[in-house]
Amino acid sequence: MEDVGWAVVRVGAVWLGLVLALIVVPSALGVSLGISEAYMWVLVKTLEWATIRIERGVKKPRPQMLKTPTANGIIERDETPMEKEIARLHRVDFEFSDIFYFCRKGFEAIVEDEVTQRFSSEELVSWNLLTRTNVNFHYISLRLTVVWVIGVIVRYCFLLPLRFTLAAIGITSMIVGTTVVGQLPNSSVKSYLSELVHLTCSRILVRALSGTIRYHNKENKPQKGGICVANHTSPIDAIILTNDGCYAMVGQVHGGLMGVIQRATVKACPHVWFERSEIKDRHLVTKRLREHVADKSKLPILIFPEGTCINNTSVMMFKKGSFEIGGTIYPVAIKYDPQFGDAFWNSSKYNIVSYLLRIMTSWAIVCNVWYLPPMVREEGEDAVQFANRVKSAIARQGGLTELPWDGGLKRAKVKDTFREEQQKNYSKMLVRNGSVGSLSTGTESD
After folding, report:
1. Between 329 and 405, whose confidence is greater?
2. 333: which strand partners?
3. Is 327 left (phi over 0), alpha (psi -120 to 50) or beta?
4. Which of 38, 103, 117, 217 is the one with CA 20 to 30 A from 27?
């Protein structure tokens, strides 16, 4: 038994030494030995082969999916505005058949609404040899089955232990490093060491995800004293961005592993964590953000204005609070490639540990990051209009669908104000047409 124990220890020491020498140290120094590039080349070739095998094996060709997420739906929606849909109101008075427009919209929402489908995993064009995406692809061959089995062995017996080791090293280094740096007095040395710890640990964590990230337009990177806003798909969004620069983050307080990391990092860097349900926290956050932006020597603030994770197909309503602070906004668009792994975190279905397990057993995390030109609030533009303008820019650059709905609908019911807005629009049409006046006159004469 002692010999077995010593053998296990020696194997573990060799494993850890190889991981440190070939991955951790090079990634901490920002150097690549070409291992990730070789792995991605093999992976791409394998998935291309699998796609060709499926297309050859399927007798009836599958229709090519459109690029827009709505192509995945089962309803072909008519986006005609209410005014044009009920245009006859400009000629006649109210008719009972006017309710058909609202009934149709209601049936569409019941069968397939635009909101809840944004909180489920994105559909793929072809099978990527992961179990989750095999539901819609019924063609099976012996070769594909063998390749899938080999993929399961590679992902769970090699990649998972490797990624778990890297993640443990990265998270432990982050917690220990920020805790130690946090004990230093506020100075330029503390700021430098804090940035170094965040940047180094983020690089290690990106390697733990087999991350392949392409950063575009680096001349537009957020500057100190500014506010960086980005669309939100996953908690790893912050790691993806921190891999290329440091930020002071703003976000909701979490429990568990996320909470431990938050409490440790805030000691070394002026992150702002708040409880969304506490009104006092909101006012305190606004005050701290204004003070942070006023100091041009501090790191740019990183905010995800959607307030929740969306499934990499859309951009939903940006909360206006981030755009009332003032200062320069640096928009960033993040788009993941779902062919290699599903980065979306459905927080109402998976806790952070379960989510990380799904990520670490996927093939890789591949994404593009675009730094957009800085934007400032124009004269006469309110915070909501400014937020919508920034959201539109991010959606266009990332190839995402722009939706007006609040991401908070993931957990809450639709506010009465949304329904009342439709009622007001309809009543304005009646008033403009004179129908309300004629109805009231007829009532008085009776």
Report:
1. 329
2. 370
3. left
4. 217
